[in-house]
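Re: folding output
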Amino acid sequence: MGFKRLLASLGAGGASVETVLTEVNVVPGGVVQGEVRIQGGSVDQAVEGLNVGLQAKVEVESGDEEYRQNIEFTKVRLGGAFELQAGAVHAVPFGLEIPWETPVTMIDGQALRGMHIGVTTELEIARAVDSSDLDPINVHPLPAQKAILDAFIQLGFRFKSADMERGHIRGTRQTLPFYQEIEFFPPSQYRGLNQVELSFVADAYEMDIILEMDKKPGLFSEGSDSYRAFKVGLDDFHGTDWAAYLHQWLSEVGSKRSWF
């Protein structure tokens, strides 16, 4: 159960906030539930609003520079304004929907390095906004996503890294201002191949799957034989042997380039 504490930076005697998550393990399209507990300080205070949201730490490329930026990609207001009496305690339950495009942070129970997604809490008092630390959540893959990931593992690929990049993959259903890339080291049978990058862009019905070999920095080289994008239904993915599908594509590209 996730637990964070924030002492409001609104002067001596200010309110404090606790955010408790009921369950930190979620899937895209699911709901993270929890409770925000506001503890009144030594003086009465007018609370103008309380918000919870989801935040991701995303890589941003700007010219020759690269830096990481916190992006809040969903936000819910919990109730309206109220008077917080000194010493009083308010418990506000919430359910925060996880967007279908939310990046995966866990594979087979193992955390993906480089993934930072969690719940933020904002308390608005006297026209000031006090934000809490991030309460991390574990985003597990949907069954259709897990089928693709399992196919890579079955072929002998090893997880290299994952990141979230600001930008848009053209030709997809993407609505968030960033996307995830999961990178794999290839097994020895695919000699000459440096890595394969995988991205999911899902909605409530299906998802775009984007695969790329030898990606050029900052460009999805759509149309080349090293790029493949296809759609998979979230409920009708069972009929495909995904390991065979991936192997066929890799073999076709590798043969053309005399890689293997």
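--- second protein (sequence, then structure) ---
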Amino acid sequence: MTVIKAYYDGKNFIPLQHFNFKPRQQVLIVVDENEDDETPAQKFLKLSWAGNESADEILSEIGKERVNSSRFGENSALFD
């Protein structure tokens, strides 16, 4: 048995690794119900932050204090 990670795009399962599937090959799909909608930053902060603030509160504060650099211009999509 080979295990391949994949995601569901709402219509199809998309493999995250290369595998040579045979036509009409049967597969076994195991759903990880522990997956959530947290961003990688939220997961990281949950694991590594010792303060009392939640990951959402920390990310909100970072967003409020962020200042765009004038060298990129006012309409820089990179920092929006």
